[in-house]
Write a structure and sequence with these properties.
The chain is an alpha+beta fold and about 90 residues long.
Length: about 90
């Protein structure tokens, strides 16, 4: 996982779980970690991109409260606004 923040907005640049570890709760743990990271840095909104064909990741992000804000080629740009405290 790679996270960064600029001008009050967070970005998840990379989010990858090896296939043998998918479906075991690690994705939720990674999202929780990223959200705490952003909150720690005073960032209350973050984005990421997910391939439209990656249905498992899309479901995970939707379940975590993210929603698509636009389609960019073959990807969705997804956003979540955080409330403090998490």
């Amino acid at each position: 996982m790679g996270c960064e923040w600029r001008e009050g907005t967070g970005y998840v640049n990379i989010f990858y779980i090896l296939p043998e570890f998918r479906g075991q709760g690690y994705g939720k743990e990674m999202i929780d970690w990223a959200e705490n990271f952003f909150l720690h840095h005073g960032t209350y909104t973050y984005y990421l991109r997910v391939a439209a064909s990656n249905e498992g990741a899309y479901r995970l992000y939707r379940k975590s409260g993210m929603y698509p804000v636009k389609k960019d080629g073959r990807n969705y740009v997804m956003q979540k606004s955080l409330k403090f405290p998490l």
